[in-house]
Amino acid sequence: FSRAEVIDQLQAGCEAPIVRFSDFDNLDQIRNNIEMTGYLIGEETATEVLVDKMDTRIREAVSRIPKGATPPKVVSFGPASYTAGGGTLFDDILKTIGAVNLAAVNGVDRFGQIGTEQVAFWNPDWVICGVDPGAEESTRDWFFENPVLQATRAGREDHLLLVPNRLYTAASQHVADLVELLVDEIYREFRERNLVPVTNE
After folding, report:
1. DSSP string of 47-73?
2. Which residue from 107, 112, 123, 180 has the highest number of Cβ atoms inside 10 Å of its Cβ?
3. Which overall architecture, per CATH, does domain 1-201 show?
4. Beta bridge partners of 73
5. Exposed, middle or buried: residue 83 (CB in 10 Å: 0-12, 13-18, 19+)?
6. Over the stretch 152-189, which tens digit does the pLDDT of each residue have?
């Protein structure tokens, strides 16, 4: 996420090698970045353990998805009108947990801006929104005071999930936290109906 000018400044004032990571588009790339970091600092074993823990947490989260649950239709959207489409880490996470990314399905590639009318047309089951600390109340007001958004399935059923931006934008082993949060929230009502959970065999 570093700007080119930041890299230039580091190269001008630092004799140590500089490595810039640029691929954060799916879980495999996150794994590769962690493992590469371990190689660069001579901690391959430690980072292998870190990746294993991340993968275990993701598998355990997926195992909590109720068998027979209808794939939730999800869109990422916030006050700035940005959404994450295909080719993004968010999209890969949704695929991993069996949810449908409406932005990707409807042709949004990577990140783009959409309007509230587009969200209403897609009629998501859930709207996922990243928030900074202290912005939770104002973000909920923005969503539920908008009649267009309130008319969506997500609006009618109070399915706005506010995710701390430290998790929403995580590009490290902490993606496991986001996976767990999404599974626990967007499948919560299916679990409450006492459906049998899928087992990892």
Report:
1. HHHHHHHHHHHHHHHHHTSBTTPPPPE
2. 180
3. 3-Layer(aba) Sandwich (3.40)
4. 100
5. buried
6. 999 999 999 999 999 999 999 999 999 999 999 999 98
